[in-house]
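Notes from the pairing session

We agreed to fold both candidates in a single pass and log them together. This is the raw record for the first candidate, unedited. Please don't reformat it; downstream parsing expects exactly this layout.

Candidate A
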Amino acid sequence: MTRGSDSTGPDGAGPGDSSTQGDKAGLAAALDLESAPWSRVRPAGGNLEYAFVPHTDGVTYVALRYADPEGAEPVLVFTPSEWDAFLAGVRDGEFDRPPD
């Protein structure tokens, strides 16, 4: 994932700052989600899509949406630090199903 070395978010905060998280609606609106290269999450047949979307602030954000022929709203947008925290949780087993 690409990060700007001294870049700021659309609200003037650094990538992943809490003030950036407070303006998620503004961030999603500022990203070019229509021309983003969306990919389907594996396994095949799933209906979740993701895209790595660069922003003019030099930061690449992660966007998730359901693949829906009637519209793909809402789109969830994650900062690099949010995505890194999610991946760390997956690796640590935080989202594993409990044993039956």
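Candidate B (folded immediately after A)
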Amino acid sequence: MVAFMRANDAYIGFLSDVFHFTFLQEYIARRLAVRVDRYYHHVGSIHIYEPDLDRARALANEPVGEAPPSYPIMPFTTPQMIAEVLEAEGAIRSRALALEDVLCLALPDYWLNVLVLFWLHAHKPRVLRPGARWRRFIRCIGISSTNDGWR
């Protein structure tokens, strides 16, 4: 897949675009039962906004790991599953779905983990605040970054 962008904010927009486009690429490949190929992201103008400059510098100065992280492979996904994920995501945004309810949905672990990330984002002022023990919280609900998946 190739994405051509006129411009990208390097700290927020670029990361968001790459995530969304590769997610879409993987979904389409799974639906067509073809191999997920390389992704190329071309940008005519890339920039960082001043309010993000310190955070971008901190990110650039983080140590690079020895091996790239392994990511879970999206399972075969039907349009009905996507509809269920979107419905649950709406309920999470409106805070009508508790984390325990998310974990009880009849979806593959991959999609449950995506919904847990949505839930964490929706509750980030409380759960992900600086000093919160959110890493322990994530381990407690069963998310791990093992080679065989996230849960």
